[in-house]
Amino acid sequence: MDLGINGRHAIVCGASQGLGKGCALALARENVNVLLVARTAETLTLAQQEIQALSEAVITTIAADITTDEGRDAVMAICPNPDILVNNAGGPPPGDFRDWTQKEWFDAVNNNMFSAIDMIRRCIDGMAERGFGRIVNITSISVKTPMPGLGLSDGARAGLTGAVASIARQFVQHNVTINNLLPGLFDTDRGNGYLAYRARGEGADVDLYVKDYFADKNPAGRLGSCEEFGAACAFLCSALSGYTTGQNILLDGGQFPGTF
């Protein structure tokens, strides 16, 4: 399937590893020129080399903290007119809400809500003027079903979901869409780290917990792969998806038990 985005320009945040890297790779395979954004130059360079080897598109990098104004300024200076924006920032650590003060809550809101909204603000008018824009926010299954210990993520990402629901419907007439991808547990450092946190809390063996947890509770019986997550992201970024906006799309192996 030709996604119709050959030669487009994308900003992918948190792109040096995990789900962000999976999205960047999928876009690069569609010959999208991708700016990889992450905080650590060394892992960015490795990701760039891996992705560039599989694509004829131009793959560039910037080591910047997307959760700061300075980081966002630096990203936009390199790619001022993106056609595609993938918002992604590491989630807050799990824990007990009784231990979280104003600082922890404000940090979570800044990192996982405001930063994405500010990147949308910076990009969306230009997208509308050019008649094409695709924005995908990587959020979490916790938006749909709270998960133990992830209250900071639940709150901040739910706030982003509410904001996007309003913004998305204002710009779709200009062929600019905004959608959210809600990952369940994937085979990433964060996914495995969360399962380790759950195992320790339940006094279980960490290695066995991954197997037992999914055998018992996830219909797919496995962790998701970054490649399949990236493929879903690439389709939402495609020229074929202009009638899909303001949606929250679960990728969780069937973990969420609801109908809606």
Describe the structure.
The protein has 260 residues and is of the alpha/beta class. The chain contains 8 helices and 7 strands, in the order E-H-E-H-E-H-E-H-E-H-E-H-H-H-E. The chain has helices at residues 18-29, 41-52, 69-78, 102-130, 151-171, 189-201, 206-217, 226-236; strands at 9-13, 33-38, 59-63, 84-87, 133-138, 176-183, 248-251. A 7-stranded parallel sheet has the order 3-2-1-4-5-6-7, sandwiched between helices. Strand 5, helix 5 and strand 6 (176-183) form a beta-alpha-beta unit. Helix 4 runs parallel beside helix 5 (151-171). The longest helix has 29 residues, at 102-130. The radius of gyration is 18 Å and the shape is globular. It starts with 8 loop residues before the first strand and ends in a 9-residue tail after the last strand. The model has no long low-confidence stretch (mean pLDDT 92).
* pLDDT < 50 runs, ≥5 residues: none
Number of strands: 7
Structural class: alpha/beta
C-alpha Rg, in Å?
18 Å
In percent terms, what proportion of residues is strand?
Answer: 5-15%
